């Protein structure tokens, strides 16, 4: 399973401005929910692996930019991953 959630951060400028009336209320819980999702996926994949003796990978595409990461704790989610793909293009933007 590869997760590409851009981006589970709590910065005040993340997301679509047209959605801020909804997203601002949820912004403080986004990263906690991301951690819960990663933990649950890891548990379910490990349980499936113990039943059929196959290895199931959990990976994620994550930003390399501290600005984009905003309120995300550095590396907390990594304990659940088999590996992470760094999106280094975020370091300097799309321009």
List keywords for this structure.
alpha/beta; 3 strands; 95 residues
Descriptive report:
GO terms for molecular function: hydrolase activity. It holds the Pfam family Glyco_hydro_18. Keywords: Hydrolase. InterPro entries: GH, Glyco_hydro18_cat, Glycosyl_Hydrlase_18. The chain has helices at 20-26, 30-52, 66-69, and strands at residues 2-3, 59-63, 83-87. It is built from three helices and three strands, in the order βααβαβ. The N and C termini lie far apart (30 Å). 36% of the residues lie in helices and 13% in strands. With 95 residues, it is an alpha/beta fold. It has one domain (2-91).
Helices and strands in order:
Blueprint (H helix, E strand, L loop, with lengths): L1 E2 L16 H7 L3 H23 L6 E5 L2 H4 L13 E5 L8
Parallel strand pairs: 1-2, 2-3
InterPro entries: GH (IPR017853), Glyco_hydro18_cat (IPR001223), Glycosyl_Hydrlase_18 (IPR050314)
Keywords: Hydrolase
GO molecular function: hydrolase activity
Give start-end ranges of low-pLDDT stretches.
Answer: none
Please give the largest β-sheet.
Answer: 3 strands, parallel
> H/E order of the elements?
EHHEHE
Number of strands: 3
How many H/I helices? 3
Instruction: Summarize the amount of helix as a percent range.
Output: 25-40%
Lateral arrangement of strands in the main beta sheet: 1-2-3
- Average pLDDT reading: 83
Query: Structural class, judged by helices and strands?
Result: alpha/beta
Which strand-content bin applies to the residues?
5-15%
Number of domains: 1
Sum up the overall morphology in one term: globular
């Amino acid at each position: 399973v590869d997760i590409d959630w851009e981006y589970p951060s709590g910065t005040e400028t993340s997301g679509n401005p047209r959605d801020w009336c909804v997203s601002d209320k949820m912004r403080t819980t986004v990263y906690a929910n991301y951690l819960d999702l990663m933990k649950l996926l890891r548990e379910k994949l490990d349980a499936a692996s113990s039943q059929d003796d196959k290895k199931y990978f959990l990976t994620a595409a994550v930003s390399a930019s501290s600005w984009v990461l905003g309120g995300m704790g550095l590396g907390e989610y990594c304990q659940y991953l088999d590996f992470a793909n760094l999106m280094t293009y975020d370091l300097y933007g799309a321009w």
